[in-house]
Design brief:
Blueprint (H helix, E strand, L loop, with lengths): L6 H18 L2 E6 L2 E6 H4 L6 H6 L6 E2 L5 E3 L3 H13 L10 H10 L3 H15 L9 E5 L9 E5 L2 E5 L3 E8 L3 E9 L7 E8 L4 E7 L3 E9 L21 E12 L8 E5 L2 E6 L4 E6 L2 E6 L1 E2 L2 E2 L2 E5 L5 E6 L3 E6 L15 E5 L6 E8 H6 L9 E7 L3 E7 L9 E7 L5 E6 L3 E6 L3 E7 L1 E2 L2 E2 L5 E8 L25 E4 L7 E6 L5 E6 L6 E9 L4 E8 L4 E5 L1 H11 L3 H7 L7 H6 L6
Parallel strand pairs: 1-4
Antiparallel strand pairs: 1-2, 3-4, 5-39, 6-7, 7-8, 8-9, 10-11, 11-12, 12-13, 14-15, 15-16, 16-17, 18-19, 20-21, 21-22, 22-23, 24-25, 25-26, 26-27, 28-29, 29-30, 30-33, 31-32, 34-35, 35-36, 37-38, 38-39
Helix pairs in contact: 4-5, 5-6
Length: 590
């Protein structure tokens, strides 16, 4: 007997399969707690063996309202979340306030995958330090009702800033992330904060907070008079660690910057620098003394438009008149006679354009992992309001002369917002969030004149907001080591996920989705050398911080790119940008 079907049997069977989608696309009207919902039968039956599949098959008796809609006596707001889960298989608008109620609703409707997903999320939220997927490292819970305002990384640690509170976390391989102590600020709401870790062995901090004025705090008072810490053997030659109170802070000073609103506040070593950019005012606090001065160009007060402090010993300040000023923080930064700051004019833009971004690199110190010294060459890249990028080089033999202009690049049509000069590449970003990168060719550590720069990539960071003032700090995060730096892209303001993108080529590494569905309010990054950990921290509206380790995702991306390395290298341009070509090619900003 032939196993093949006749033409009539095939036609009947095909017609039978055609009727199944039509039945599943039937429109279902629901009345849940007095609120109307319209969906399809296929959506309600997307998960098998649930309340809805039994109801539509007649296994559960139903009642209808006057319009004929099936009535279900449950909470309509929670049902909207469940219906959206059946449509997309994703959870949205879940927080600490509706979590327990949503769990009850998921059990009532017998949606087993949703119950398991909520139980997994509950287990991750129940512990102070917890493990999730391969990227999710831990959840740092907080008892604060306000959102995370700012996060500041430091050596193997993280400070989480709220409106009136700062929590200090430390990382160890054995215990993970652990909150060691808190700092409570009972005055006005914290606007700016920075600190310096004066002693990592005893965790001694110097904290500066700006609300209406700048107040400095310090912890770590020695407990010499406590007899329980005395040496029982009374041996003066026996080494002994003097304990301190790390959770006790005392105020050591406060001041105003001539009643000006402070825009930036940061430490360079143990010296506190405060800037009032619009009025060009600079203040440096050192050894309980404050020295302040206005930035002037030909007796005209200049506006501070950008600054750079990455070299630690040098502070570079840029003005709207196109001048780069230098303060040597390693030396005494003020005159003893009149108390004025020693601010030197380092370089002036040839066209006098307003400088909007600056980046500095000491190539030899980078190669040998040293602190900057006067015998090392300095490389500076800065961007202007017109979108022009200049690269300056100052060799050790010309350190007392004006730096030399190495290259001028014109590819942006909007003002430069961010710029990063690295040992391996140059990255520029305009105010339209368009990014351009160039790979650097070096000879004996110095930028080679031939070819020097090779165009590498161009891409854009997505953001739907209208102003950069409300944009989170997108980075780049990581050490100043080229391919290891990343951008954090949060496409819109009320977003609960972030995309991690390589800063060198724009490739997407991974997506970090909030484990509890809460909105992301702040971002920061930290690289820890031990075991090559690269952390990204996301602060959320509920006061919690989620920790992500990017190292597994980066290794996976490197493996994915290996088969395409030869193709990418063959398609990449091999010559540098000429001056005329850079002025007119690849205008991708508008």
């Amino acid at each position: 007997m032939s196993s093949s079907l006749s033409h009539k049997e095939k036609k009947n069977r095909i017609g039978h399969f055609k009727k199944i989608p039509e039945a599943m696309l039937e429109i279902i009207n629901l009345n849940v707690g007095g609120k109307r919902f319209t969906t399809s039968k296929s959506t309600l039956c997307s998960v098998s063996d649930t309340f809805f599949t039994a109801m539509l098959m007649g296994g559960i008796p139903t009642s209808r309202d006057d319009s004929g809609a099936i009535f279900i006596d449950r909470d309509p707001d929670l049902f909207a979340i469940i219906l959206n889960y059946l449509r997309t298989n994703k959870l949205h608008n879940v927080n600490e306030h509706n979590f327990d109620s949503l769990m009850d609703e998921a059990k009532f409707f017998s949606i087993t995958p949703l119950v398991k997903k909520l139980e997994l999320r509950e287990n991750m939220m129940s512990a102070q330090t917890c493990g999730g997927n391969i990227l999710f490292e831990s959840l740092l819970k907080s008892n604060q009702s306000s959102e995370v305002k700012q996060m500041i990384p430091f050596d193997r640690g993280l400070a989480v800033v709220f409106n009136h509170f700062i929590k200090f976390y430390f990382f160890s391989d054995n215990n993970g992330w652990k909150c060691v102590f808190d700092f409570e600020y009972n005055s006005d709401e914290i606007e700016l904060v920075d600190f310096v870790l004066e002693s990592s062995s005893v965790r001694q901090f110097l904290i500066a907070i700006y609300s209406k004025e700048i107040i400095l705090w310090k912890n770590g008072e020695n407990l010499h008079n406590n007899n329980q810490y005395n040496d029982p053997y009374n041996d003066p030659y026996r080494p002994r660690r003097v304990p301190i109170e790390i959770d006790k802070f005392i105020e050591i000073g406060h001041y105003n910057l001539k009643n000006c609103r402070v825009d930036s506040l940061f430490f360079i070593r143990s010296q506190l620098v405060t800037l009032c950019k619009k009025k060009g005012r600079i203040g440096i606090w050192k050894n309980s003394r404050l020295f302040e001065q206005d930035l002037k160009e030909n007796d005209t007060v200049s506006v501070i438009t950008a600054f750079n402090k990455t070299m630690m010993d040098y502070l570079f300040l840029c003005s709207n008149h196109g001048v780069i000023y230098l303060i040597d923080m390693q030396k005494l930064p003020f005159r003893l006679s009149d108390g004025d700051l020693l601010i030197n004019e380092f370089y002036k833009d040839p066209d006098g354009e307003e400088i909007t971004a600056i980046s500095c690199l000491c190539s030899d110190c980078w190669r040998f992992n040293l602190n900057h010294c006067s015998h090392c060459p300095i490389e500076i890249a800065y961007g202007t309001k017109s979108g022009t990028v200049h690269i300056l080089v100052q060799n050790p033999e010309t350190q007392f002369q004006e730096p030399q202009l190495f290259r001028t690049i014109r590819v942006h049509l909007s003002p430069i917002w961010k710029i990063m000069l690295d040992h391996e590449y140059l990255m520029t970003m305009c105010t339209k969030l368009h990014v351009r990168t160039w790979s650097l060719v070096r000879f004996r550590g110095m930028i080679s004149t031939q070819p020097g720069l090779k165009p590498q990539s161009n891409f854009a960071i997505r953001y739907s907001g209208h102003s950069l003032d409300n944009l989170h700090d997108i980075g780049p995060y990581g050490h100043q080591e080229g391919l290891k730096q990343v951008f954090v892209e949060i496409p819109y303001s009320d977003c609960n996920y972030a995309n991690i993108i390589y800063a060198s080529n724009g490739q997407k590494i991974c997506t970090l989705e909030s484990v509890d569905g809460s909105k992301i309010t702040s971002v920061c990054g930290l690289s820890i050398d031990i075991r090559d950990r690269r952390f990204i921290f996301t602060g959320h509206e509920n006061g919690n911080v989620q920790v992500w380790d990017l190292n597994p995702a980066m290794k996976r991306k490197i493996k994915e790119n290996r088969p395409n390395d030869k193709n990418r290298s063959s398609s990449r341009p091999s010559s540098s940008i000429s001056e005329n070509e850079s002025d007119h090619s690849n205008f991708d900003d508008e």
